[in-house]
Design goal:
Blueprint lengths: L3 H22 L26 E4 L7 E16 L4 E3 L2 E2 L2 E17 L4 E12 L19 E10 L8 E7 L37 E10 L2 E9 L18 E2 L7 E9 L22 E19 L2 E21 L4 E13 L5 E4 L7 E2 L12 E5 L1 E11 L11 E13 L6 E11 L5 E16 L2 E18 L1
Antiparallel strand pairs: 1-2, 2-5, 2-23, 3-4, 3-17, 5-6, 6-7, 7-8, 8-9, 9-10, 10-12, 11-13, 12-13, 13-14, 14-15, 15-19, 16-18, 19-20, 20-21, 21-22, 22-23
Length: 473
């Protein structure tokens, strides 16, 4: 196994070499920018067409579109204490995986009818999402429908009120609870904002009835969701204790809403629920945002042999900015700052590692803390911020793209951790052709933890370096 420092150096050299190769291989007339649709990265006037669209009428107002996305990761990770890989102790890992591979089909079938489907897989590495030394699994069964929803536009050619239901990512809480992953500025989204991901939803999607629209400068969405029981999550069932877990009994509806006040340009509003990460300077966006999710008797604890049920109440307030700085040079800035109140019930805490490269944890270490996991979800509060700077257009010469460096910080105070959690990311995008073809090099620094009775105490910090190659049309 290569040392961690040598592997970091290798990844950096690979990133530089990929920039050189891509500069020779790709030669668009200019950098692509996202369109009005937050789920796709289309092209401004004068640039080659880069979307798969079939018009259903002469004006093109009725249409069908298809998109394809692949985000491949090459990663080196310093493992948390006690991590094992296929039953062997391992202090670091190098893995290749598919963070997301997706296909979308959506369209405006008539003046009042819109459909949206998304199919694909997530977190596909050599473990394929899990490993058991005593059982086998099938690595070929992971792709699934993420979205399948129909929408009725009440007012022709106006987004005042759109009503839909089905399997959808229309969410409350925040813009990152329903992110357009093809257009995000950073390599990955702050997953804690997808608050019940794969617990009582399907990869942040829920069976919901919703209404959404734009009235003046107000963009709104409200939904009633039918959460999945935790028994269908595919994971081992939780055991009740003094620490809240999702309830094993009962079924209550979930209610949520998200609202944005848009001071300048209005954001894209075509596909249901998805929020653009960055418009790469194509729009002047300054928003104030707020959202919530609430569900009665969502979680449970046991006290003195009695089972107590607790509501889940989550809310956030945030500001979002994405705007050009110098239109002639093509520079732009992206910034977000949000506060999240996350009440899942007493002492709720969930460790999670994105596409975790470790398969297990040694005896004597807290369960679920292997690999790159950290306390991602918990009862308490979170402050999340990000900032990025889009450098001048054609930084490397005509048709050779530009760079967008960024920084992220997630600072959380949860009931069961003894000190505030801090997870920090620094990265840079090489935008070969806008969001349609880009490399992202990202370094994450996170805390590891040891058990201290019912609490968790920091036990040092670990690093992770990832090179992502995104292709999207």
């Amino acid at each position: 196994m290569l040392s961690f420092s040598r592997t970091i150096g290798l990844c950096i050299l690979l990133f530089i070499s990929q920039i050189s190769v891509a500069q020779r291989a790709v030669n668009p007339t200019t950098d692509s920018l996202p369109s009005r649709d937050p789920a796709i990265a289309a092209t401004p006037a004068g640039v080659d067409k880069n979307e798969l669209k079939y018009s259903l009428n002469a004006s093109g107002t009725h249409f069908i579109k298809a998109t394809f996305l692949n985000q491949a990761w090459l990663r080196v990770n310093q493992s948390n204490p006690g991590s094992t890989v296929i039953q062997e102790p391992n202090t670091s890992t190098v893995d290749i995986g598919l963070r997301r591979t997706r296909m979308q089909l959506f369209g405006q079938l008539s003046d009042h009818v819109f459909i949206y489907f998304q199919f694909g897989l997530n977190n596909f590495n050599y473990l394929n999402g899990g490993f058991s030394p005593t059982a086998t699994s099938n690595r070929k069964v992971q792709p699934f429908f993420h979205d399948a929803v129909g929408e009725y536009l009440v007012f022709k050619n106006r987004n005042l009120l759109n009503i839909g239901y089905g399997l959808t990512i229309v969410n409350g809480l925040s813009r990152f609870s329903g992110p357009s992953v093809a257009t995000i500025m950073s390599m990955d989204v702050p997953v804690f904002a997808q608050a019940t991901v794969d617990q009582t939803d399907e990869f942040a999607r829920k069976l919901s009835l919703y209404a959404r629209g734009q009235v003046g400068r107000l963009d709104y969405r409200i939904a009633m969701s039918d959460p999945f029981p935790i028994q269908t999550s595919g994971a081992a069932l939780p055991s009740y204790s003094q620490n809240a877990q999702f309830a094993l009994k009962g079924h209550r509806k979930q209610y949520q809403g998200f609202f944005m006040w848009q001071f300048f340009d209005r954001e894209a509003h075509q596909t249901p629920g998805y929020n653009t990460g960055t418009y790469l300077g194509a729009r002047k966006i300054v928003n104030l945002e707020a959202g919530f999710i609430t569900q009665q008797q969502a979680t449970a604890t046991t006290v003195g042999g009695d089972t107590l049920y607790h509501p889940m109440n989550l809310w956030s307030v945030a500001s979002f900015l994405d705007m050009p700085l110098n239109k002639t040079r093509g520079t732009a800035i992206n910034a977000y700052l949000g506060y999240f109140s996350t009440n899942y019930g007493p002492n709720y805490l969930r460790f999670n590692g994105i596409m975790n490269p470790a398969s297990g944890i040694a005896a004597g270490f807290p369960a679920g803390t292997q690999g790159n996991a950290f306390p991602m979800f918990g009862t308490g509060s979170v402050v999340y911020g990000q900032v990025g700077y889009l450098m001048k257009r054609n930084l490397f010469g005509s048709g050779r793209g530009t760079l967008m460096p960024y920084a992220q910080a997630q600072i959380a105070t949860y009931d069961r951790i003894t000190q505030p959690l801090g997870v920090y990311n620094l990265g840079v995008n090489y935008l070969i052709n806008g969001h349609n073809a880009k490399f992202t090099l990202d370094y994450q620094n996170r805390p590891s933890y040891r058990a201290d009775g019912n609490l968790f105490t920091p036990a040092g910090r670990r690093g992770q370096l990832t090179l992502q190659y995104q292709l999207f049309i």
